[in-house]
Amino acid sequence: MSEERFDAIIVGAGPAGSTAAYCLAKAGLEVLLIERGSTSGAKNMTGGRLYGHALHKVIPNFWEEAPVERRVNREIVTFMTGKSAISLDVKSEKFNDYPSFTILRAQFDAWLAGKAEEAGAMVATGVRVDKLLMENGKCVGVLSDEDEMYANVVIAADGVNSLMVRKAGLVEELKPKHVATGAKAIIELPQSVIQDRFNLNDETGATQLFVGECTKGLQGGGFLYTNKNSLSLGLVVTAEQFLHTEHRMADLMEDFRMHPAVQPLIEGGKLVEYSGHLVPEGGLGMMPPLVNDGLLIVGDAAGLVLNTGWMVRGMDFAIASGEAAANAIIQAKKAEDYTKAGLASYQKDLENSFVLQDLKTYQKAPEFMENPRIFGLYPELVEEMMINLFGVRGEPAQPLRKSMLQTVKRQGGMVDIAKDLWKGVRAL
Ligand SMILES: Cc1cc2nc3c(=O)[nH]c(=O)nc-3n(C[C@H](O)[C@H](O)[C@H](O)COP(=O)(O)OP(=O)(O)OC[C@H]3O[C@@H](n4cnc5c(N)ncnc54)[C@H](O)[C@@H]3O)c2cc1C
């Protein structure tokens, strides 16, 4: 590896790292982007929906050239019990005003890293960084195997479990309540079958989120995203929940696939990929110091993910933080000051943008989601209401309030529900 000193070394070619590399290279800085995977994206996974606004700001209308799968214009939220599924289904052209796309990371990440390379960044794949090089408390480069590589600033874009930053003692150990475990299956189906099943055309896409039985009442949820020739189907469950249950992720996934609301959607499909990954979900409660002397932390490595229960957003946060980190380094180069103070605009930029403002708005969401009634009682209540409304037995009808009250009493009572409503309003 070269002996030269780079303006910036970026570790990790996910959305955060590649965006930072692209912005820096475009501004004419000497950039090295290091990725441990054999290609960028080879080791990466996500549920599958990219909210487009952040990348659109960096590469306007990126979807015209990027390998996106489908543009989402149909959103379905499904409450599940063992035998039922109750859905809210919205299909609207208005979603076009807020472009979001289903993507597959192997293709998408390779494209974005390619954009950074085209802009002039040096991209080294198949290289794992083992350690940050520190001198007098300042980060001066990275070590990979025997290779020392030096830079004015290192960007840690190496994802949720940033070992190099942890080894340097700059970030605390991950706590089970701050991360969720994600599992995902990619199921291949012919394009025409997907379009018929989800009422789509060649370009449009649907997303479906599931709450309740899919996680057996554990804190978390399920997702299904339509790609061109495949479906991304998966679950996200808070890691701490697995400490107190017999359930295993593989069994949850199997039951989810076989649920009567899911099985017909994937019927005839071929399982082509199965993967697992952690999701940082602790919000501001797990965020490390983002700026250090000679070091910026971006994306998942900084815990910049928002899980509100009905959406997981990490990629737009990663992209925006990558851009903000690049801008801070461009300013630091002008001032020739790579200290914490010289790089402080990174934190300020994030504070002024949706990244830290949304995390602040939803900072009570992780605590609210710890409530098991959201994943057990409430789907049951909705089920009971719908069965009572539409299940005509030919017997004298029982008033809706009576049957619902019975369910509520079985599970705790009205006071709990009122408290949950109040907490929900405050958290969300
Ligand atoms: C199951 C699941 C569902 C999700 N669903 C969504 C969704 O629908 N929408 C959304 O916006 N977000 C979603 N997310 C979150 C989103 O995937 C992440 O927030 C996003 O990928 C973070 O990007 P990043 O660039 O920070 O990190 P990553 O994408 O994790 O990239 C880190 C990169 O660093 C590399 N790397 C790591 N260590 C080293 C090392 N030592 N040396 C060299 N390279 C290294 C990795 O190989 C990887 O390429 C989901 C996540 C999961 C797990």
From TrEMBL:
Keywords: FAD, Flavoprotein, Oxidoreductase
InterPro entries: FAD-bd, FAD/NAD-bd_sf, FixC-like, FixC-like_C
Pfam families named among the record's database cross-references: ETF-QO_FixC_C (PF26311), FAD_binding_3 (PF01494)
Cofactor(s) demanded: FAD
Domain FixC-like C-terminal: 365-427
Domain FAD-binding: from-to ranges: 6-171
UniProt GO MF annotations: FAD binding; oxidoreductase activity
Family classification: Belongs to the ETF-QO/FixC family.
NCBIfam families (alphabetical): PRK10015.1 (NF007450)
Alphabetized PANTHER family for the sequence: ELECTRON TRANSFER FLAVOPROTEIN-QUINONE OXIDOREDUCTASE YDIS-RELATED (PTHR43624)
Name of the protein described by the UniProt record: Oxidoreductase FixC
Species name: Desulfitobacterium metallireducens DSM 15288
